[in-house]
Amino acid sequence: MKRLTSSFVVTLLVISFIMGISLATLGAEKKVVINSYMADPAPKETLKQLVAEFEEANPDYAVTINTYPHEDYKTLIRTWLPSKKASPDIVTWFAGERANTFVDKGLMMPLDDIWGEGKSFEDYFPRAFKSISQFEGETYFLPQSWYWWGFWYRKSVFNELNLEEPITWNQFLDVCKELKENDYTPITIGSKFRWTAAGWFDYLNLRVNGADFHMKLMKGEVSYDSEKVRKVFEHWKELIDKGYFIENHSSYSWQEGAKFLFNKEAGMYLMGQFIQDVVSDEKIKEDLGFFRFPIIDASVPIAEETPTDGYMIPKNAPHPEAAKKFMHFLATRDAQWFFAKKLNRIAANKNIEPENYDPMVQKGLQMINRSDKVTQFYDRDTKPAMADKAMDQFVKFMAKPGQIDQILRSLEAERKKVFE
Amino acid sequence: MNKRKFAPFKFLLIPVILYAIWVIAPIFYTIFLSFTQWDGLTAPTFIGLGNYVDLLNDPTFYTALFNNIKWLFIYVLVPLPLGLVFALFFNRKLPGVKIFKTAIYLPLTLSFVVLSQIWTWIYQPKYGAINVTLKALGLGELTVAWLSNSDIVTYSLIVVGCWPQTAYTMVLFLAGLQNVPTEVMEAAKVDGANKWQRFWKVILPLLKPATIIAVAVTIIQSLRMFAIVNVMTRGGPFRSSEVLANYMYVEGFKNYSMGYASTLAVVLFLIILLFVFIYLYQIFKTEVEY
Question: I need a surface site. Which of A132, A159, A232, A417 has the fewest CB within 10 A?
């Protein structure tokens, strides 16, 4: 009898506990679950604050954020999307080819009705963003923020050596030469995780052959084993042969590569705006400047890399209506500005006046506004399998620049395997 | 009587079911997947032996396989005998022996990820402990980029692996030495056997069970090596330090070629099976009683 009573008590406790949980969520009727890869402290906190603001304005909504480490997220999302039970309502994701991969498989929900009455995508975002957000005529991707790439340098070093920001390739070579003669390693890079080398390939290809050819290459429509691609590697080889890159760069992560810029061992670093996130010293941060990747062929329209992050709603989202309401909020000027300001990114929303931004960000924004085309990044524009194999070849090329022929052949073989 | 007969099976039932669900079934599922093309999103499509044909034409597969064989040979030739030497040495009552025993055993308690991270710093080409020491000794020309020189990177990684592996085999041998009866040793001494004779004729044969386990474990460890490679180089630079387990991981979880990754898994499984089988076959063929 005693045992019966105690088990009855335990059961009661368990039930009341479960009820307690469900009662707590019952207060807010409309649930939204966001799965997010913003695991770094600053972006994570910013998204949390954004959600708090939304919930304050809409008390009948309850938004849950589940945060996952960036790399794990890319694998995990493939298990959520096809599942009716595990699917979240909103996922953070990347614009362009990576978004298209899921849209293509019918795993995403179109966002055409989130803009509010009489409004459309173009009321919120620049027309140029359509190409990375819309697939087969429908919007699937909500862009949030993006950043630019450039050559980062120390203003104090350039001042000391009387150097100016180079605009053309020849000016750039002169800067490298000058730096080298003054015992600076002209260019630093940390290629352990390979994508930094892909940045070099992207920019050289954009400057030598232009964005249209680059995108065809990314989509696997043209051959790697061609004179055009060879020219890209030859420009790269010139820098390697002259010893302008830092030694043993494949031992370093991108952050370790950046340290050589911060401690003035190296002169320049081709990197995204997020390099500012890893400067711990305020003085160094103020001393950092950047310039556009130099122009190689003036007849080629200028293109820049603008990797864009944002949100999508999976097809299997359990609460699509509530999710759309939140997506509408995320698209608004205020929400976008809140996020961009905190993190020094550039908001995708076009209604934010440029003068609001930090002067450094304004310079980046201007640079992009004066470009003709934008691309995402090598591993965002092409298929994952191609990116993986190609990035190996880029790092190999930097170690063994004499093997251009072999590398071009390997790249072409991989393209055929992946795309045909 | 009947009840008694079935009792062990009843106890085994739950573990066997769990084992079947979580170990046996996935093996068969992986074998099935190796005949398909699957991106992890849509349903797998059957492509017969396509993945296996690709595998035979894949240079990275051969690099990885060759590197695994390097791991295997060095693992059997270095940490295994070294572990035995340490075990024999520490199997005596000397002052302070426990401290040294613990010191050698300690790396085994570290997670491979932590261990790899520490060694990444030791190998760092500019400020790492090894190169700094070499420079301080005036041996600057011996400094190498340990992890970015494609010719030596695999050996640099194997050194890291040998460290805990030595400790592991030492523990196995120490346990084995506990089972060597002192009477036998004393009898050998009385009969006038010298140290070498005692080692070769008495200790080593009696250590056979421990040795069998140590060798089998060493083979398996070397062939399924993943953590050190993944943390320290991710198989780089340009796949020169790749091993099968990491390559499988990259193909499956980075490139989303689950079918191809499964093929690599099956091949790795077969290779381990082959090596362990050959080894155990040799052992049991020459089984002798003492």
Answer: A159
DSSP one-letter code for B144:
-
Tokens of A369: 């506004």
Size of the A and B interface in Cβ pairs below 8 Å: 64
Phi, psi angle pair for A234, to nearest 5°: -70, -40
Asked whether this chain's domains A29-147+307-351 and A151-305+380-419 adopt the same fold, the reply is: yes
Q: What angle do CA A276, A279, A280 make, to 5 degrees?
A: 140
Contact A251 B150 (CB under 8 A): no
- The answer to whether the Cβ–Cβ distance between A250 and B148 falls below 8 Å is yes
Q: How far apart are CA B274 and CA B8, in angstroms?
A: 32
What's the pLDDT score for residue A110? 93
Question: Which of B42, B146, B238 is facing A396, going by the closest CB pair?
Answer: B238
CATH architecture of A151-305+380-419: 3-Layer(aba) Sandwich (3.40)
Domain ranges, ordered by start, for chain A:
29-147+307-351, 151-305+380-419
**Homologous superfamily of the B34-285 domain (CATH):** MetI-like (1.10.3720.10)
Q: Which two tokens stand for residue B1?
A: 């009587």
Convert the pLDDT of each residue in A259-298 to its tens digit: 999 999 999 999 998 888 788 788 998 899 999 999 999 9
Residue type, A258: A
- Which amino acid would we find at residue B74? I
With CA atoms as reference, the chain B residue closest to A78 would be B41
State how far the alpha carbon of A229 is from the alpha carbons of A334, A407, B151, in Å. Answer: 43, 11, 28
Q: Hey, what are A138's tokens?
A: 């429908």
Cβ neighbours of B54 in A, within 8 Å: 417
Rg (CA), chain B: 23
Q: What are phi and psi of A374, to 5 degrees?
A: -130, 150
pLDDT of residue B198: 84
| pTM for the full predicted model | 0.82
Which residue of chain B has the CA closest to A72?
B253
Q: What are the tens digits of pLDDT across the range A305-341?
A: 989 999 999 999 999 999 999 999 999 999 999 988 8
Predicted local confidence at residue A251, as pLDDT = 87
Q: Chain B residues with CB inside 8 Å of A78's CB?
A: 39-41, 256
- Say what the ipTM of the complex is: 0.79
Interior CA angle at B133 toward B129 and B137, to 5°? 175
A191 contacts in chain B (CB < 8 Å) = 237
Q: Which residues of A touch B238 (CB under 8 A)?
A: 392-393, 395-396, 399
